[in-house]
Amino acid sequence: xxxxxxxxxxxxxxxxxxxxxxxxxxxxxxxxxxxxxxxxxxxxxxxxxxxxxxxxxxxxxxxxxxxxxxxxxxxxxxxxxxxxxxxxxxxxxxxxxxxxxxxxxxxxxxxxxxxxxxxxxxxxxxxxxxxxxxx
Length: 135
Prior knowledge:
mainly alpha; 2 domains; 0% strand; rod-shaped
């Protein structure tokens, strides 16, 4: 191999091994010139990390999707609890003879119930695939 490279250099004829060695030598020289700047950047980054000046931020679309789902579920359960509480209040008011206030409370309970159903349908539409609904 050394002989063929030497012959190629002397005669000037192309030799694939010699050409590859030449390319690698040029690449190594260019890499050596850049190494100092890279080491300096790495050192600067490590110093920033040690001081706490550097913050890494990442986004996870799946996490954001799950948080949105959790928020909607919490909001939906709040509507459900409120519906039950106002329906119970309407029943108590009716039992004590205050029919007008009981009717108003029943209407408010119905509005909250519809809000609960709307939230629930949004959750089902946005987060559950058709095959998951059947399970």
